[in-house]
Structure prediction request, 339 residues.
Amino acid sequence: VRCCGPSGRHVDVPGTLAVLPRRELDHLLVRAAQKAGACLHTPWRLESLLRDDTAQVVGARLKCRAPGGLSSVHTAQEVQEVQARHVVLATGASAQALQASGMSERTSPSAMGLRGYVKNLAMVDRLCHMEVAWHPKLKPGYGWIFPCPDGVFNIGVGIIDSHRPHDHTMREINLRHVFDDFVRVHEGARELVQGGQWLSELKGAPLRCSLRGARVAAPGILVTGEAAGSTYSFTGEGIGKALETGLLAAQALLEARDQALDEASLAQRYQSMLAVLQPKFDLYERGNRVNYHPWLTDILVRRAAKSPRLRQRMAHLLEERSTPAQLITVRGLIKLFLD
Prediction:
């Protein structure tokens, strides 16, 4: 990963990472789930949960467009009720399903991203790293360029803390303007866009971070993935964390089955599993201050270029063997100058 500071300096941090378009990754996950025995039904949307007389969740009410109704303004809707011993809500960062299920504690996202795909064969040798760039024009956030196969690049910007905490309205940020600034201030982004062909429009996406914003368990229901806020605040990395929380939800359900746990015990077990992850999410939230102060990255880049030890510490951050807070505490900043 090439880390680029506002001055134009950069440092290459060792690490082994993979880039794949979400459409392809999601297809791989769906096929794996089907191979493991899951049944896929799509495109359905959660309408509401089914509850018994004790308010325990016993299934879901789903809605789907009726076949052949796509061309009609008043499209017919098919409603289906599905009975289930447990419902696992893994509906991503959109607040709609959380609200419909009564599990939402905050409708606004924690962050917003904007990205698209550009093809530029001339940049394959020029952009051979995953690049992340910080600049005052991009705060509180960063821009990125991720090489994909066949001369295609994922390029975008992300803004952390995109909404005000008191009223949950979006701060005065225009992501398209932030993206335009990224293209202006970052040479690689400028060359990529000016000489490339857009394969998709720029698309925005919300992020829910720091394991906050939703109730994660109630009788008959578990909330997992980004619906539960499984994205790291500092980096915006969420796919791996979403999968991890999904594995924990599955583990909790299996334990409940094998140990004959009641619903309250199941909810408590799952909550305790997520609580183990919480301190690390909190450290990433503390690390988010870097996105407010891009000059810190220039210090880090300048020192890391001369220090193999510091580059190794940054590599540990990529591999999640350390946290950003360990680099940007007062003690960490002192180490930057003394390393």
Q: What stands out?
A: The mean pLDDT is 87. The longest strand covers residues 57-65. The two ends are 21 Å apart (CA to CA).
